[in-house]
Amino acid sequence: MLKIENLQATIENKTILKGLNLEVKAGEVHAIMGPNGAGKSTLANIIAGKEEYEVTNGSIELNGEDISELAPEERAHNGVFLSFQYPVEIPGVSVTNFIKTAINETRKAKGLEDMPAKDMLKMIREKSELLEIDRKFLSRSLNEGFSGGEKKRNEIFQMAMLEPKLAILDETDSGLDIDALRIVANGVNKLKSKDNAVIVITHYQRLLDYIVPDFVHVLHDGKIVKTGDASLALELEAKGYDWIKQELV
Ligand code: ADP
Ligand code: MG
Ligand code: MG
């Protein structure tokens, strides 16, 4: 699904990623952990194609195709979803109308007609029931006055509707409360399948009490320096990151 080799990247002439390798297969959930400033959000943004970063070396392949030259929208159309892609408040545009537009734009980019209204409604009903999202929530204005939990609910709903091949959830700075953690975790657990993959970026081990990852990676100083199973997250919780840094010297 995703294959990253020797990825090096800079922002404002500062090298952030220093030769990062990562392979994610369909059906897998990967957690990326690591100290603040390690480059986790940078990695997420670069996979999604945010333009402020400069990739100076390495490759990013999605299903065998090099996506490193594609614009963010093209990557989205190829099935890459990054949480908080749409954090803007849009007064007067409901959660539902926003997602309808996003879906039809993706279809248009692929040369398809708009999704018939009846199918769209059915999909909205199914996904909102699966995720236990209230009808009233769907008619609210996008992000306007949303609490942390509601923002997460909106994100997970977008993810459910867009059915990405690769979902990247960057949970770093949002001060997730336990409610928001559960919303994210439930969403991921319900939406994961053998055909998609999820990368969860977090420095909270707590989140991984609810989402059990197949692999846990530690990103430190621009590289993945350790990979393990879910037990690695517990070890990090107990021991911090210093022992990993010491192993590196
Ligand atoms: P993490 O998500 O692991 O906490 P980030 O990817 O956000 O780390 O940041 C990695 C490093 O890149 C940090 O040193 C940060 O200061 C720097 N950085 C990130 N974004 C920018 C930016 N827009 N301009 C300058 N430096 C940045
Ligand atoms: Mg940070
Ligand atoms: Mg971050």
From TrEMBL:
<dbReference type="InterPro" id="IPR003593">
    <property type="entry name" value="AAA+_ATPase"/>
</dbReference>
<feature type="domain" description="ABC transporter">
    <location>
        <begin position="2"/>
        <end position="246"/>
    </location>
</feature>
<keyword id="KW-0547">Nucleotide-binding</keyword>
<dbReference type="GO" id="GO:0005524">
    <property type="term" value="F:ATP binding"/>
</dbReference>
<protein>
    <submittedName>
        <fullName>Fe-S cluster assembly ATPase SufC</fullName>
    </submittedName>
</protein>
<keyword id="KW-0067">ATP-binding</keyword>
<dbReference type="InterPro" id="IPR010230">
    <property type="entry name" value="FeS-cluster_ATPase_SufC"/>
</dbReference>
<dbReference type="GO" id="GO:0016887">
    <property type="term" value="F:ATP hydrolysis activity"/>
</dbReference>
<dbReference type="Pfam" id="PF00005">
    <property type="entry name" value="ABC_tran"/>
</dbReference>
<dbReference type="InterPro" id="IPR003439">
    <property type="entry name" value="ABC_transporter-like_ATP-bd"/>
</dbReference>
<dbReference type="InterPro" id="IPR027417">
    <property type="entry name" value="P-loop_NTPase"/>
</dbReference>
<comment type="similarity">
    <text>Belongs to the ABC transporter superfamily. Ycf16 family.</text>
</comment>
